[in-house]
Amino acid sequence: MHIGEIGLSALKGARHQPREGVVLRADGPEGDRVFAVVDPTSGQVLRTVENPSLITVAARWVDGVLSVEAGGRKIAAEPVLTGDYLELEYWGRPTSMEVVDGPWAGEFSRILGRSVVLARSAVTGGAVYGDSVTISTTSSLARLARESGVAVDARRFRSTFTIDTGDADAHVEDCWAGREIELGGARLRVNGGIPRCAVIDLDPDTGARGTTLLKTLAAYRLQGSDIMFGAYAEVIRPGTVYIGDDARVRDDSPA
Fold first, then answer.
1. At 147, which helix (H) or strand (E)?
2. What residues contact 61, with CB distance under 8 A and at least 6 apart?
3. How far is the C-alpha of 137 from the C-alpha of 154, rounded, in Å?
4. Residue 172 in contact with residue 190, Cβ under 8 Å?
5. Where are the domains of the chain?
C-alpha cells in the first residue's frame, strides 16, 4: 500500500486542495483548517453542507500569508489578529476563535450573501468534527463507483490521505481500527469510522449538488443512524508524509 493522494484546506469548509506532502504534527496536519468563516450573530462556524458556495473558495496559507481565490478574484494578505475572541459552538462543543482583521470579512460576506467574519481557532482542531486526520482507500472508492455507476472523485470525501490499497477488499480500513499505521515518516493510530453527510454529493470544485452518492452509500454502509466511509486517525509519531510513501499497518499493534 502507498499514499495515493494528500489533501487539506487552510480554511474550514473551503475547496479541498491537493498537496504533494504534508507535515503531521502531534496535533494534526500542519496548515489544515487554521481558519474558519463565522456568523457572529448566531455564533456558528459555517459548515459546508449548509453553505456549499464555500467549496468555490481555494484557500492557501503559506509563510504567514493567506491567499483566497474565488470567482476569478484573488486576495492575499497577512491576517491580523484583533484580540477579539468569539466563544462559539461547533457540533455541540464549545470552541474559542479570534477574529481576523483584513479584507476577509467583506469578501466572504459577498460570496455567502450574509454578514460573516474570518476567525482563527485559538486551539488546534477547534473546528474539526472528529480526529485531526482522515483516511480513505482506493478499494472503498472503487466499490462506491461500482455501486453508483459513476466515477467518484476522492476529493468529495475531503480526506487527509487516500491510500492506494490495490486489490484489497472494499472498506479494508474498518479492520485497522485500534491499530497503528506508518505513513512515510509518521505513525498514526486508526480510530473509528467516519459518518458521512450530504457534502459528498457536492461537486468538489463548484459546490453544485448533482449526485446521489450518499443514498447509494447508505444502501450498504448504514450502521445505526450513520453512513460510514473511511476512518479517523490520530498522530502518535509526528513526521512528514509524501505522495508515493509506503503505508504499512504495524503487525505488532493492537488488533
1. helix 138-148
2. 10, 31, 34, 35
3. 9
4. no
5. 2-12+131-248, 34-121
Amino acid at site 11: L
| Grid cell of 125 as nine digits | 482542531
Residue 73: name the closest of 61, 59, 94, 91 by CA: 59
Cα–Cα distance between 246 and 243 in angstroms, integer?
A: 9
Closest C-alpha to 153, from 235, 210, 234, 238: 210
Encode pLDDT of 28-49 as tens digits. 999 898 899 988 888 788 888 8
The helix/strand/coil state of 215 is helix
Instruction: For residue 158, give the nearest of 42, 25, 66, 54 by alpha carbon.
Output: 54
Question: Three cell numbers at 84?
Answer: 477579539
| pTM of the predicted protein model | 0.89
Measured between its terminal Cα atoms, the distance across the chain in Å is 19
How does pLDDT run across 209-250, given as a tens digit for each residue? 889 999 999 999 999 999 999 999 999 999 999 999 999 998
Look up residue 210 and give its amino acid. G
**Mean pLDDT, the chain, whole residue set:** 89
Distance between CA atoms of residues 7 and 68, nearest Å: 17
Question: What class has domain 2-12+131-248?
Answer: mainly beta
